TrEMBL record, chain A:
It comes from Prymnesium parvum. One of its GO terms (cellular component) is cilium. One of its GO terms (biological process) is cilium assembly. It is found in: Cell projection, Cilium. The lineage of its organism: Eukaryota, Haptista, Haptophyta, Prymnesiophyceae, Prymnesiales. Gene3D superfamilies: 1.25.40.470, YVTN repeat-like/Quinoprotein amine dehydrogenase (2.130.10.10). This is Intraflagellar transport protein 80 homolog. Its main location: other. Residues 298-579 form the IFT80 second beta-propeller domain. Keywords: Cell projection, Cilium, Repeat, WD repeat. WD repeats lie at residues 10-50, 99-131, 181-213.
TrEMBL record, chain B:
This is Clusterin-associated protein 1. Pfam families: Cluap1 (PF10234). Residues 187-235, 267-302 form a coiled coil. It comes from the Eukaryota. Keywords: Cell projection, Cilium, Cilium biogenesis/degradation, Coiled coil. GO terms for cellular component: cilium; intraciliary transport particle B; microtubule organizing center. Its main location: other. It is found in: Cell projection, Cilium. InterPro entries: Clusterin-associated_protein-1 (IPR019366). It comes from Prymnesium parvum. Belongs to the CLUAP1 family. Residues 366-386, 394-425 have a biased composition (Acidic residues). Signal peptide: none annotated.
Length: 763, 425
């Protein structure tokens, strides 16, 4: 991936260009020391001179467009060297001028992401906030010396500014504490905070650029360039950032390693602005030129298909299986593309083209108004986030199925990390409350439930195979702990691992891969947690991955291949055993004999453990017995044998549910089947006297049996007094227990079970 | 002290190629050294021949330095500098420096734009009307050429010193295209190398196959030889039977020889013992004889002197007795002698007879021994009869002795047989 840099042969500005900014409608404004403001179109052609200001300007910023209020966004702000700033409309009328906002020059300006407030900083070291209309709101901070840069946090609740060599994150609420750290060895000149991935990039006079997380922890530090870094800017989608220096323009991945480096002859890059679709930049340069960079040579791949954007308007598709090559031409520039399963979705500036990978000739075309920032594909439909309609679900014919929505959803903050998508479910981390995950139905767009975690969630993913009852959601929280939970029924969080760097579900089966502690971990059958969680450690495959680094990302996990992008940007592949997948196929088809044969052939304890769990899931006791025997789990083997000998189906099912740690369901099954005595006995076995009594009372059976066992228990403990008042009361009511009668009753129950079980077995 | 001016100054200095990075914070506190350095550098950029005193150790020196710079610039560039601001060397100094820097920057920008202009203008300039101007220009240009030539020479001379820095600079600043070109070249070279390697590999393969064929050939040869060897081992040579038979015979002969040798040794030992005994007896007899002769002489003398009466009868008895004793004493040596004579004549030839006797038993079986002995005994008897007649009267006793000898021979034989058994012959 790299920039295709273009520049007009003759400069429009005579002096140093100090600020550039793209509007939501992809118009560019540039301001220079010749006091002129020029308007450019998206192709990089100058349109008109908007205004000639009376003072030197230092920076220019459009008001960010807000969904539904697009026409308001025709106003921009310029900061001036005399300490004032001006709000100017697109037509060139000065809407408002705020004189002496700072003493000395205004060095930088930043609109909050919702466009409701403006932050300014100046040579005097003040950081101030202003309303949308230019009214003074508050003095946010006071620093030593010049503040060179200011930017807002993702939620616009905090503000980041530089103070000499330090970066400071200051919350808007004065009560909270501000964070300050030494970011560079020389003054910090520029910083940017991305709202999607919540990372900060900064550049300074020590000629380095660095990437930080929102807590000020360093994620990356570049090697020094030749000149000081004068501009950094995140792409709005948070996947790349651009770095500018004297005669240098770099494109870097969000983890810091650089995709490409250009050396335009234009002096220092003072400001870099990205278009909303993250495909083009404009840069203000010291020579008076405004240079444009178009992202080209982007690549995506899926299974056997490789896509590459050769030019702004063309895509080439290579099928590596039969070496066929296809060139796709578009009228507009391609802004986004995604390929998965059998479909390719290409987003251009005004259209969405949906191709089937078997037919490259006739795409389904949908007209588009906003800018698409995210595409997620499931098997039957895909989700798309654009700036006008927000999140929407479309089928592959281009028909919109729904527009999932909940209050406080911020479509612009959605990324592949905080949205998980599958055919029957859409999970989104609530931006307002990051401990909550909202579950939505992609077909109707209605919310079907929420999941609540104890701390903030950073990354979620949904398993891709099976129906919704087998759908599992994994989440990585702020502490980088990996949890798994089912999405239906009650929420059951189970912590799979700690300090996880990245995760990904397999596209074609239910295995889960993660990188943690320098190891590549693959959970072949995460379902094992709900079957027999003692087996969990033995169903994990671990491969050393020490040299991959901390900011590693799994970019594809399909069949047996894991593709990983290391911290330094290199893509490496690892492979995992294919047997668990085959085994799972057998087990879901209830072909237990081939499954057993496979395990015997492979002779791996890992596979046997998987089979044991799958057999328990499939209620196949014989296979479970064999599998437990193979991994030397004698206790469980014996229990399986015990279950096999139970007379009734309900009893067997209940015992299996007990084995899976689902007592409530087990009792329910028994009571529904009419085996109250067995249900009561189940409670008594684990000394849950009160529950046993409650059940007996509601069923009006076997109250005396419960009391009898209770008294026997108390006698064993050394003739203690009854401590449970309910039981004491019941004992008083019933009086003396007739042991023989109770015994007879129990025997009768057992006989009934045997009889029924025999009858069922016969039929 | 303006943000914008500092920023622009920084940018201009970078564009002009000032070797140091200037920080935006550099002029926050007065920094005269930097001001001086920048000023000097800018002046040199403006006019290389500008003469400036760069002595700034004392306050006075600094003032003089600034003054000289300002004067020079005023004269040459028509730039008026505010010395006070410069001396303060803070943000306001930047404004002064910027005057000079922006002048240079302007020139720099124009120079960039120039090539297009000159392309258009030069053809128009050349014409007959401009000859005079041309002459002047040519002169100054020619002087320039020599000047620049000398400078270039000097610079080339200093190239070796700056080589390292240049290399570092070159190493630092590379662009993708050249890199790619290099890479392509490298790839090409590697490919060639790979082809070469392939060729050598093929050669090696060939060698290997040759060697393998050779090995194979040798192996088959070895196998054939081994087979032949085995077949030869199984065939029994024609002379083997005879050889074995002869060998058995030889061993039998040898054992016989050893036995005979032992017998012989034993017998010789016996002979030595007997000889010694006989020697002793002879000596004894001689002694008795001498003693008797002496006694007889003394007797004779006494008789002659008449000192003693001659007892004739006693004398006769004595004589008779002594004769008897002498005959007995002589008889045994005589027998021994006859035996020795039988073997080889006199006692003096003992060694020679020994050798003869040593060779003889080789051709004798142990069973024949007795007969031999007997034969030799008969020979002895014959010889005896030829020998000294003095002993004839004692023949009977001699026979006894012979019997004794034979008996002792038999005993010897028995002992030998025992020995053979014991010694596992």
């Amino acid at each position: 991936m790299k920039f295709k840099v273009t520049q007009l042969p003759a400069n429009k500005h005579a002096e140093v260009v100090t600020g550039v900014s793209w509007s939501a409608g992809n118009d560019l404004l540039s301001v220079a020391d010749d006091k002129k403001v020029w308007l450019w179109n998206v192709e990089g052609e100058p349109q008109a001179q908007v205004i000639e200001t009376d003072t030197f300007c230092t920076e220019l910023r459009w008001i960010p467009s807000i969904q539904g209020r697009a026409k308001d966004a025709d106003v921009f702000v310029v900061g001036c060297t005399d300490g004032s700033f001006k709000l100017i409309s697109k037509t060139g009328r000065v809407e408002k001028a705020v004189p002496s906002a700072h003493s000395g020059a205004v060095t930088s300006l930043a609109w909050s992401h919702d466009g409701s407030s403006l932050a300014t900083c100046g040579e005097d070291g003040h950081v101030k906030s202003w309303s949308r209309n230019g009214f003074f709101r508050a003095n946010l901070a006071q620093a030593e010396g010049t503040v060179h840069t200011v930017c807002w946090s993702a939620e616009s609740e905090q503000i980041l500014f530089s103070s000499g060599k330090h970066l400071v994150i200051s919350p808007l609420q004065p009560s909270s504490k501000q964070v300050m750290w030494k970011a560079h060895d020389a003054p910090v000149l520029k910083a940017d905070w991305n709202k999607v991935n919540n990372l900060i990039v900064s550049g300074g006079e020590d000629c380095k650029y660095r990437v930080w997380d929102a807590y000020g922890r360093q994620l990356y530090s570049s090697s020094p360039a030749e000149y000081s870094i004068s501009a950094v800017a995140w792409a709005p989608n948070g996947r790349h950032f651009a770095v500018g220096s004297f005669n240098m323009l770099r494109l870097c991945d969000k983890t810091g390693w650089s995709h490409s480096r250009d050396q335009p002859e234009c002096g220092s890059l003072f400001d870099i602005a990205w278009t909303a679709d993250s495909t083009q930049i404009a840069a203000a340069t010291g020579s008076g030129a405004v240079i444009f960079g178009q992202l080209v040579q982007r690549e995506v791949s899926c299974a056997h298909l490789e896509l590459r954007q050769e030019e702004a308007h063309t895509l080439s598709v290579v099928n590596v299986l039969d070496e066929t090559h296809e060139d796709l031409q578009f009228k507009e520039r391609v802004t986004e593309m995604s390929v998965s399963g059998g479909h390719l979705v290409v987003v251009t500036a005004t259209q969405v083209c949906i191709y089937s990978t078997t037919n490259w000739n006739t795409p389904h075309i949908v007209e588009l108004r906003g800018t698409v920032s995210l595409i997620l594909q499931a098997k039957r439909h895909f989700a798309m986030v654009d700036t006008i309609n927000g999140l929407q679900v479309l089928n592959f014919d281009g028909r919109m199925l729904s527009q999932p929505k909940f209050s406080a959803m911020r479509p612009d903050a959605l990324s592949s990390f905080n949205v998980a998508y599958s055919d029957d479910l859409l999970a989104i981390i609530d931006v307002a409350d990051q401990k909550t995950i909202r579950l939505l139905d992609p077909l109707t767009g209605k919310q079907v439930g929420t999941l609540q975690h104890s701390i903030e969630v950073e990354h979620i993913a949904l398993s891709q195979v099976g129906d919704i009852s087998r759908r599992r959601l994994v989440l990585v929280d702020k502490n980088r702990d990996l949890h798994i939970t089912p999405v239906q029924g009650t929420q059951e969080m189970y912590k799979l691992h700690i300090m996880v760097d990245t995760i990904r579900w397999n596209d074609s089966n239910n295995s889960l891969a993660a990188v943690a502690d320098g190891m590549l971990l693959v959970w072949f059958y995460p379902e094992v947690i709900y079957m027999d969680r003692d087996l969990l450690p033995s169903t994990i495959s671990k491969q050393p991955a020490f040299e991959w680094g901390k900011t590693v990302e799994i970019i594809e996990f399909r069949d047996t291949r894991v593709q990983v992008r290391r911290s330094d940007g290199a893509i490496v592949s690892a492979s995992v055993s294919p047997y668990p997948t085959i085994l799972e196929k057998f087990c879901t088809a209830a072909q237990w004999e081939p499954a057993l044969r496979l395990c015997r052939y492979v002779k791996s304890p890992q596979l046997w453990a998987c089979l044991a769990a799958m057999a328990v899931a499939g209620k196949e006791l014989h296979t479970a017995e064999v599998a437990y025997a193979a991994i030397d789990q004698v206790d469980k083997l014996l229990y399986m044998c015990h279950i096999k000998e139970l007379p009734t189906i309900e009893a067997r099912e209940a015992e299996l549910l007990l084995f899976r740690r689902r007592q409530a369901e087990a009792v329910q099954v028994l009571v529904q089947g009419g085996w109250v005595y067995r249900a009561i006995k189940l409670f008594i076995r684990v000394f849950q006297w009160e529950k046993a009594f409650e059940l007996a009372r509601t069923q009006q059976q076997h109250i005396d049996t419960v009391l009898y066992y209770r008294q026997k228990h108390l006698a064993q403990l050394g003739n203690r007094e009854e401590t449970i008042p309910k039981l004491a009361q019941a004992a008083q009511q019933i009086g003396q227990l007739n042991e023989a009668a109770i015994r007879a009753k129990i025997d009768a129950e057992k006989a009934r079970e045997r009889e029924r079980g025999g009858a069922r077995a016969a039929s | 002290m303006s943000y914008r001016e500092l920023r622009n100054f920084k940018e201009i200095m970078a564009t002009l190629g000032y070797p140091r990075l200037i920080s935006i914070e550099n002029f926050k506190v007065p920094n005269f050294d930097l001001v001086k350095e920048v000023l000097l550098w800018l002046c040199k950029r403006y006019d290389k021949n500008m003469e400036i005193l760069d002595e700034t150790r004392t306050v006075q020196d600094r003032v003089v330095f600034l003054k000289s710079v300002a004067e020079e610039l005023l004269v040459k560039a028509r730039i008026k500098l505010n010395l006070k601001n410069l001396y303060a060397s803070n943000g306001f100094a930047v404004r002064e420096l910027l005057k000079l820097a922006s002048l240079l920057h302007e020139a720099h920008r124009n120079a960039k734009a120039d090539p297009d202009d000159t392309d258009d203008t030069t053809p128009a300039d050349i014409g007959p009307g401009h000859k005079f101007a041309d002459l002047k220009l040519t002169r100054s240009l020619s002087s320039d050429i020599t000047k620049y030539g000398a400078h270039l020479d000097k610079l080339l001379g200093s190239h070796s010193d700056t080589k390292e820095a240049a290399a570092r600079a070159l190493g630092k600043n590379f662009d993708i295209d050249t890199l790619q070109k290099h890479l392509h070249r490298e790839v090409e070279a590697i490919r060639e190398q790979a082809e070469q390697m392939d060729a050598t590999l093929q050669n090696v393969e060939q060698d290997k196959s040759n060697l393998e064929a050779k090995i194979e050939k040798k192996k088959t040869e070895l196998e054939r030889s081994e087979k032949r060897f085995q077949s030869l081992q199984t065939v029994r040579p024609a002379f083997m039977d005879e050889y074995e038979r002869l060998e058995a015979e030889l061993s039998a002969q040898y054992s016989l020889y050893v036995q005979s040798w032992r017998n012989l040794s034993y017998l010789e030992n016996e002979l030595d013992v007997i000889n010694a005994l006989e020697q002793e007896k002879i000596a004894e007899n001689d002694r008795q004889l001498k003693h008797m002769q002496k006694r007889l002489r003394e007797e004779e003398l006494r008789i002659l002197r008449g000192q003693a009466k001659v007892d004739e009868k006693a004398l006769d008895d004595a004589l008779l007795e002594s004769n008897m004793a002498g005959a007995r004493a002589i008889k045994r040596p005589g027998a021994a002698n006859s035996r020795r004579d039988g073997r080889g004549g006199s006692a003096g030839d003992f060694d020679g007879s020994d050798l003869q006797g040593g060779a003889m038993p080789m051709r004798e079986d142990s069973g024949d021994e007795g007969e031999e002995e007997e034969e030799s005994g008969e020979e002895d008897e014959e010889e005896d009869s030829d020998g000294q007649g003095a002993f004839n009267q004692d023949e009977g006793e001699e026979d006894d002795d012979l019997d004794d000898l034979e008996a002792s021979d038999d005993e010897l034989e028995d002992g030998e047989e025992d020995d053979i058994d014991d010694g596992n012959f």
